[in-house]
């Protein structure tokens, strides 16, 4: 009799079970696969590898759709030029507004891109610090030490790398605030670049020159890159030196409109970039030693971020990035006048 009861119950629920199976099966059949291309700057590889894995898992759980995010990395201005030339990025994740504005000027990004996401579409920040040989044999502690006669400084090219533009502007801002005039700031930065023997196109290439080719006494780079090197290569090879003051570096993001419309990936691209502001995304950002926007996430990691005086671009160039680009980094600008190799 018990067997008959069990059989009856199974038969009664069989239609529901079959219906649910059909729904699940249909969902699997209807699940889609997408590919996004994230064109980014040179030293963000490790960050976006982890972001991409986390977002793919999140999107699969939310939609049953599979997404693969491909990455492209080089100097930020070089990447912007590649997108303008036809590289079909769905999104760009840069380290400077001017590179996104260049792309927007060609009609590839909406002119109001800063308003699409919070914080002027910059989900995290960084700053410029120093990486030195273990034990800091040249006793480099602040910007003034970089221009001592015996020191060799490594950084990338401000014409192609946002990382290097921030290094240049950090030095300029430090000198301007300490010495008090544009003329003295120019003199300081001119002295600094006399200590720079080579200019790589991107931040990672400069890193490789410093750590693999053993070139130079100090590397100027983003905070996250310096701590990544010190952590991954071990504390027995390099030390991170935090200067007394440096520049706050926003890292903005944007969607390439014609590409996502062509691929019907706009919703996915927006979700991908929006993921950077989620608690999970902000935790990954902090893990890679970028400074998250979320105050609670930052507070949980506050001990990991050295305290220093941070100034913004507008503190030293009130007109903003367009003016900075025109005066300092355009062809024939101050950087071209300053960096003249014999």
Give an overview in words.
The chain has 342 residues and is of the alpha/beta class. It folds into two domains: 120 residues, Periplasmic binding protein-like II (D-Maltodextrin-Binding Protein, domain 2), CATH 3.40.190; 157 residues, D-Maltodextrin-Binding Protein, domain 2, CATH 3.40.190. The chain is 49% helix and 17% strand. It contains 16 helices and twelve strands. Strands 4, 5, 6, 7, 8, 9, 11 and 12 form an eight-stranded mixed sheet that branches. Strands 2-1-3-10 form a four-stranded mixed sheet. The radius of gyration is 24 Å and the shape is globular. The termini are far apart. The N terminus is likely disordered.
User: Low-confidence parts, pLDDT < 50 over ≥5 residues?
Assistant: 1-28
**Which term fits the overall shape?**
globular
What value does the average pLDDT take? 90
> Which structural category fits the helices and strands?
alpha/beta
Main beta sheet strand tally, sense and closure: 8 strands, mixed
Supply the CATH superfamily name of the largest domain: Periplasmic binding protein-like II
CATH class of the largest domain: Alpha Beta
CATH topology of the largest domain: D-Maltodextrin-Binding Protein, domain 2
Determine Rg (CA atoms, Å): 24 Å
The helicity comes to 40-55%
> Termini, distance in Å?
101 Å
Quick one: how many beta strands? 12
Question: What proportion of the residues form beta strands (DSSP E)?
Answer: 15-25%
CATH architecture group name of the largest domain: 3-Layer(aba) Sandwich
């Amino acid at each position: 009799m018990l067997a008959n009861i069990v059989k009856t119950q199974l038969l009664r629920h069989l239609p529901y079970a079959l219906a649910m199976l059909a729904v699940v099966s249909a969902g699997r059949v209807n699940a889609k696969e997408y590919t996004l291309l994230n064109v980014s700057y040179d030293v963000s590889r490790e960050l976006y590898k982890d972001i991409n894995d986390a977002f793919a898992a999140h999107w699969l759980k939310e939609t049953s759709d599979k997404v693969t995010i491909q990455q492209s990395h080089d100097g930020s201005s070089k990447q912007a030029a590649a997108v303008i030339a036809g590289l079909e990025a769905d999104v760009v994740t840069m380290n400077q507004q001017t590179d996104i504005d260049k792309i927007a000027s060609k009609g590839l990004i909406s002119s109001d891109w800063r308003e699409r996401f919070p914080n002027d579409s910059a989900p995290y920040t960084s700053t410029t610090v120093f990486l030195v040989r273990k034990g800091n044999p040249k006793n480099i502690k602040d910007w003034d030490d970089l221009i001592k006669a015996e020191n060799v400084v490594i950084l990338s090219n401000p014409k192609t790398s946002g990382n290097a533009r921030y290094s240049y502007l950090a030095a300029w801002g430090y000198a301007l605030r300490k010495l008090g005039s544009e003329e003295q700031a120019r003199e300081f930065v001119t002295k600094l670049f006399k200590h720079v023997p080579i200019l790589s196109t991107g931040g990672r290439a400069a890193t490789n020159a410093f750590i693999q080719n053993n070139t130079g006494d100090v590397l100027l780079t983003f905070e996250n890159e310096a701590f990544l090197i010190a952590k991954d290569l071990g504390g027995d090879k390099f030390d991170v030196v935090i200067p007394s003051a440096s520049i706050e570096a926003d890292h903005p993001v944007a969607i390439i409109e014609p590409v996502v419309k062509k691929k019907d990936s706009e919703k996915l691209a927006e979700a991908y970039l929006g993921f950077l502001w989620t608690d999970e995304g902000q935790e990954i950002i902090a893990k890679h030693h970028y400074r998250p926007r979320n105050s609670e996430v930052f507070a949980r990691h506050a001990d990991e971020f050295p305290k220093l005086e941070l100034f913004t671009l507008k503190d030293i160039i009130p007109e903003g990035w367009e003016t900075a680009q025109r005066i300092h980094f355009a062809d024939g600008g101050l950087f071209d006048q300053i960096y003249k190799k014999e």
